[in-house]
Structures are given as structure tokens and as C-alpha cells.
From TrEMBL:
<feature type="transmembrane region" description="Helical">
    <location>
        <begin position="201"/>
        <end position="220"/>
    </location>
</feature>
<comment type="similarity">
    <text>Belongs to the Lgt family.</text>
</comment>
<dbReference type="GO" id="GO:0042158">
    <property type="term" value="P:lipoprotein biosynthetic process"/>
</dbReference>
<feature type="transmembrane region" description="Helical">
    <location>
        <begin position="56"/>
        <end position="78"/>
    </location>
</feature>
<keyword id="KW-0808">Transferase</keyword>
<keyword id="KW-0472">Membrane</keyword>
<keyword id="KW-0449">Lipoprotein</keyword>
<feature type="transmembrane region" description="Helical">
    <location>
        <begin position="121"/>
        <end position="139"/>
    </location>
</feature>
<comment type="pathway">
    <text>Protein modification; lipoprotein biosynthesis (diacylglyceryl transfer).</text>
</comment>
<protein>
    <recommendedName>
        <fullName>Phosphatidylglycerol--prolipoprotein diacylglyceryl transferase</fullName>
        <ecNumber>2.5.1.145</ecNumber>
    </recommendedName>
</protein>
<dbReference type="InterPro" id="IPR001640">
    <property type="entry name" value="Lgt"/>
</dbReference>
<feature type="transmembrane region" description="Helical">
    <location>
        <begin position="25"/>
        <end position="44"/>
    </location>
</feature>
<feature type="transmembrane region" description="Helical">
    <location>
        <begin position="291"/>
        <end position="308"/>
    </location>
</feature>
<feature type="transmembrane region" description="Helical">
    <location>
        <begin position="160"/>
        <end position="181"/>
    </location>
</feature>
<keyword id="KW-0812">Transmembrane</keyword>
<dbReference type="GO" id="GO:0005886">
    <property type="term" value="C:plasma membrane"/>
</dbReference>
<dbReference type="Pfam" id="PF01790">
    <property type="entry name" value="LGT"/>
</dbReference>
């Protein structure tokens, strides 16, 4: 006989999800699909142009997308670790209770409910896991990892650009800190019904990142891939360029510092668009490097390391008969 393991809170969660009914396709989901379709169009063509096997394109895309969602969720848990696992008197352990109760501690995000929710995605987790999954596939199939990774770079830049637009239109919380500036596109105000600060002008960091990533796509798609650089030059360049862009954007984003350098900012009530008050930061938020900034610094250094070690600014010598 098999023993069914019951996680308290799991059944009510499933029942609530089923009874709530389908609310239609989200704009974020639509843009994720568009990003996948765009990559599925460009990647096989690039593999064929580089005389690589385009038959691997489907698996590279599927594993890349799967790894992206898995890694994004795993890194999200790391980001809210101190909220999921807390020292609470009267419960059966700091770590045991969140593992055995689907919704976690009362009033706190649960481990399992956070993992299986439709929100809470950290890009760098997805980025690293996506690369890991497709690298393992290439190792398993004895493919030229450097060449295949280079072929994925334009599609990766385009997919990220489209995905960031999905964050924006879905009202994701990756907004910047409050600002008095009124710059079209670069600043915006959330709707009064939004769960995030409504009526508060903030920096439009998703669109900023999307725009920069579109520029990266144009650079790789229209110029860099035709320069006959050494293998993995495009990969190293992308690590450096994207790392620098994300490092800079994070100075504008509302993210918690891993190790605060100064005291965290004070929150205050700011009048909303319809007269209500919204709790938000009353000034510049950055008070230490965030998780994403540390990862950005790491991938920048990795990109520089490979660029210098293998002299990837040089071009391949033409093959002579």
C-alpha cells in the first residue's frame, strides 16, 4: 500500500484554484509565447548559417524555456528566504513547518505556494538555469558548446526584450523608485486598482531593460554575428553587455539589498490617484547591492575572463585548402 503524504493547505489551494475559474490568457503569457515563437524563427536559421545542425533548435528552445521558469522560481525563493523560513515560537521548526505546510507560516509567503504561484520570477535564476539546461543537453549530445551558445545569443537578447514588455503590461512589481520626473515612456504611474503603488510616478525599468535588450539584439543580429569572431565571443560579449545593463538598471529598481551599506529607506503614505493613500518609499531606494547586482557583477567578470583568456576580440583565420 502506498502512503499519501498530505501537505496541509495543498488541497484547499487546488480547490480554490479550480473553483476560481479560468480568467483568460494573461498578457504576460501572450508575450512569453511571442518571445518563444520569435526565438524559434531566428535560432534554426542561425544554426544553419553557422553550418550547425538546426534539428537541435527545438530541444535547445524547450530546455531553455523550461530551465528559465525553474531557475526563476528557485531564485525567487532565495530572494524571499527570510520571509519563508522564520523563527516563530510554537511551530514545529523554522525549516520543517514551511516544508510540510503548503501556505507556510501564517501571514508569510509559503515555500510551495510561492513555487507554484503564477507570480514571482527572478530573471537571473532563469538565465543561469536556462544556460545550464541547454549546456547539459549539448554535453550529452557532444555538440560544440561554444558555437551553439553563440548561435543562441541573438534569440536570447530578443526573447528577453519581449519578456520584459510582458512584465510591464502585466503590472509586475519590477518598477523603479518614486520620482517627480515626468518623462514619456521612462516614467509611468500604476492604475488605482493595482496591487503595487497606485498614483505614484515611478521609473519604468521594464521598458528601459526591454529597449536596451532590443539594441543588443540588433547589434548581434545585424553586425556581430557576421564578424567571424572566435567561438564564444558573442557569448562573452553578451554576458558583459547584459551584466552592465542590468547592474545599472538595478540602481533604479526597488529591490532589497543583500548586505545593506546604509539604513534601509523610510516608507511614507503618498496620496493615490483616487484620493486613497499608498505606502511607498519617500526617496531614493538603493542602500546596497541587490541579489541581481551581485549576479550581474559575477557574469560581467566571467565574460571578461573568457574574453581575455581566449582573446575573443580576434577573428577566426580563414580555412585554406
Amino acid at each position: 500500500m502506498y502512503k499519501v503524504i498530505d501537505i496541509p493547505g495543498l488541497v484547499p489551494f487546488v480547490q480554490k484554484y479550480i473553483s476560481s475559474g479560468w480568467e483568460g490568457i494573461s498578457t504576460f503569457s501572450i508575450l512569453v509565447v511571442i518571445a518563444f515563437l520569435a526565438a524559434s524563427y531566428f535560432l534554426p536559421k542561425e544554426l544553419e548559417r553557422k553550418h550547425l545542425d538546426p534539428a537541435h533548435a527545438d530541444w535547445l528552445l524547450i530546455l531553455g524555456v523550461f530551465g528559465t521558469f525553474v531557475g526563476a522560481k528557485v531564485f525567487f525563493i532565495f530572494e524571499i528566504w527570510d520571509q519563508v523560513f522564520v523563527d516563530t515560537p510554537g511551530f514545529d521548526g523554522k525549516y520543517l513547518y514551511p516544508l510540510t505546510h503548503f501556505d507556510g507560516f501564517p501571514g508569510r509567503p509559503g515555500l510551495w505556494s510561492s513555487l507554484f504561484s503564477g507570480s514571482g520570477l527572478v530573471f537571473y535564476g532563469g538565465f543561469l538555469f536556462g544556460i545550464l539546461f541547454i549546456s547539459l543537453y549539448m554535453i550529452q549530445n557532444k555538440l560544440d558548446i561554444k558555437a551553439y551558445l553563440d548561435a543562441t545569443i541573438p534569440s536570447m537578447a530578443l526573447g528577453y526584450a519581449i519578456g520584459r514588455l510582458g512584465c510591464f503590461v502585466s503590472g509586475d512589481g519590477c518598477y523603479g523608485f518614486a520620482t517627480h520626473a515626468d518623462i514619456p515612456v521612462l516614467t509611468f504611474t500604476y492604475w488605482p486598482t493595482s496591487a503595487v503603488p497606485s498614483g505614484v510616478p515611478v521609473w519604468n525599468t521594464p521598458v528601459m531593460e526591454s529597449f536596451v535588450s532590443f539594441l543588443f539584439f540588433i547589434y548581434f543580429q545585424k553586425w556581430a554575428r557576421f564578424q567571424n569572431f572566435k567561438k564564444f565571443s558573442l557569448g562573452a560579449q553578451y554576458l558583459i553587455l547584459h551584466g552592465l545593463a542590468r547592474l545599472g538598471i538595478e540602481f533604479l529598481r526597488v529591490n532589497k539589498a543583500v548586505i545593506p551599506f546604509i539604513d534601509p529607506p523610510i516608507q511614507s503614505n503618498i496620496p493615490g490617484a483616487t484620493g486613497e493613500t499608498t505606502t511607498f518609499l519617500n526617496g531614493y531606494y538603493w542602500h546596497g547591492f541587490s541579489q541581481s547586482q551581485y549576479v550581474s557583477i559575477a557574469i560581467i567578470l566571467v565574460g571578461i575572463y573568457f574574453l581575455v583568456k581566449w582573446k575573443l576580440w580576434e577573428k577566426e583565420q580563414p580555412v585554406t585548402a
